[in-house]
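User: Can you fold this complex?
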Amino acid sequence: MGGTRFASKSGKRSHPRRTARSREAGCSRKSRSHEPLLKEKIRPGSIAYDLDGAIEEELRTASPAAAFISGANAIVPVLLALLPFGLAFGATAAGAAQLAAVQLIAAGASVAVVVLTVLVINLRMTLYSASLAPHFRRLPVGWKCLLSYHLTDQAYAATITRFDGGEVEERDKRWYFLGVGLAVWLTWQAATMLGVFLGAWASEGWSLDFVLPLTFIALALPAIKDCMAGAAALSAGVAAVFAASLPLNLGLITAALVGVLGGLVAESVIQSRRG
Amino acid sequence: MSTPALWLTIVGAGAVTFALRLSFIALLGRMEIPLMLGRVLLFVPAAVLKAVVVPLLLYENGALEASLSNERLLAGLAAALIAWRTRSVLFTLGGAWRRSGRCRP
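Assistant: Here's the predicted assembly.
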């Protein structure tokens, strides 16, 4: 068993942080590596199996253009799902920070108050930034700025699982992320424009806040790849329910931190059980 | 708010948000990442994305709505199940869409 495992492991691109983790704790070494995870969950012959193969194929890119396109491709289903609601996107369901800012401005708040409120509401961006930082640390400053500009909830959700799972080559990451980021950006701009001109008509039917969580679930579920990540997700979810009444989106960041803590606790429990 | 102040607010809010996004990406240079930090960071995706999703599913107009009549929750659970089985974004959204389409008048 050890022999074949090793052979298959060395054939893959290894991810330094992941190796460190599995050596240290190794909640379930089997599910930590990416390939068995996919192949175990999906039965051969099913449509999902074929689709999965196609995605794997597509990710083995060598050129910037190919990485860019596969990044854009990864987010297209999400953007398509959001498109019917794109008008509401611009008109009613802009970012939480934008909504709060507009309300405060209407209420006559000062510049400092509005800017500070936006700062607090968007604090989760620092978590995204920290989480992506190891993948971008070798990039020149210009690239770091460009990619940071495109760091949104959607772009983060669509890229981090593949980056952490070692599915995207180191040199392709920038282009992959840019592909995702630009696609989100273009959709956002177009939707905002449409929302400005067609706002009243758009508020009919489903609201964006119905579809938004679904896109996040679709993108984020693969982030739960073992029991430790499961513990992190569970504790974040429970904390989110209780912290949701906190003002200024502070419940979100509180819940995220509780989740990380939960993951660390689960990790140390598993570690101590293994001796 | 006067027009210059409005522009100042827009530019300020944009700059602040960009600074938050750039923060750790800029700070974490070419140095090795401490092992402890690396371990913490691996839990961020699962934790923060659930922290975003759960309130969106469970709260309706600011009130906790954890029952089977909450169609947003039902669609979310269906989406989670499909995402777990297929790991396909397209199937997940399509499936959740149909699921919730059926229970909509």
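The mean pLDDT of chain A is 72. Chain A touches chain B through 94 residues (CB under 8 Å).
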